[in-house]
Amino acid sequence: MTRTTDHVVASPTGTRRPSRLRVHRAWIVAAVAFVTIVGGAAFNSLPGLLIDPLHSEFGWSRGEIGLAVSIDMALYGLTAPFAAALMDRFGIRRVVAVALTAVAAGALASVWMTAAWQLMLYWGVLVGLGTGSMALAFSATVTNRWFVARRGLVTGVLTAAGASGQLVFLPLCAWIVGEHGWRPASVTVALASLVVVPFVWLLMRDHPADVGLAPYGGAYEEKPPPASGAAVRAVRVLLDAARTGPFWLLAGSFAICGASTNGLMRTYFVPAAHDHHMPVTAAASLLAAIGVFDIIGTVFSGWLTDRYDARRLLAVYYALRGVSLLFLPVLLAPTVHPPMILFIVFYGLDWVATVPPTLALCRERYGRDSAIVFGWVLASHQVGAALVAFLGGVAREAFGSYDVVWYAAGALCATAALMALVIRREHPAPEPAAR
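Structure for MFS transporter, as requested:
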């Protein structure tokens, strides 16, 4: 049943009056943000599918291709805090529209590349800057501005948008690569990014006050003036946060999160499965299936984050992920069998379940600067992913398989679980006030 809710609306004279709206505008903005992230995430489906085709066509080593992917992931993370500050300065719509265009330009330009440095420029720099501007700091900015109630749930849904993009585009791109080659797949990704731009420009709004509303579940606030010195502010927030222990624990554990997901699974699961003679389309379908359970797990994690200690949730998530990765090398086989399906379900539920509690801890510790702080924490996530994206290719060349990388990632996840618990011991939550 739809519930009618009273919201505060600014009148032309500056006074505020109640307005009965059936759907709060915040949910429309969240829906546009979801579609934006899905469109921007289309490129993330490509690297794992194109490693072998690029290696065969151009003779580039897996290390060179992995380096291009690592540049993309590193810039994805390093751009995020500056993008959050730029959104405060120029608005969400402008920054995201330019970012989507950059992703499309990089994906489209790669169709004509002939040298490895061009791969690093198009995939690494252009796509990295574009996707970084639509990273989880974008989700944090939207959530912080438009929601007071249901923040954990909305964070989970927007985080799951990346997995939704993988679910949509990974099987499609795998089929296109198998039937028509890698270039049409790259064009498809470019078009997916461009299609989203009109939705962002027409439906996205920067702040609830732009349409005379209070944030969902909160009180009306005037829109703050544009923040100048976006880059300076991003660096200043980093320096302030770096003086606190929780920042380094969150950044370190999130770096391991990136290493064990984007850097490892997203980049090398398909090539590793293909090494065991599994068809590329079957491996890509398994990776896409992870996205299905990723959506469920992330939304559920957002719900849990609204109710339970975020530190304990993180410790459980990392520990379970580490255990699952230790079993993966013995599960890879030419065909899909029940234990592999069990791994896909288990790992998918955990993939980005770490995001809602990590963001909640940033919000709790750093207040109004939390979106930028989370951007820097996300930068560490992507630096961890970038290192593994490069080292995974090097390990494959050196050892002939990816097994050592799976085992190392499992051990790192155990370390991340301990780091999450240390946050609680060093900074216990305050006791609730007496009533």
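The chain has one domain: 20-211+228-426.
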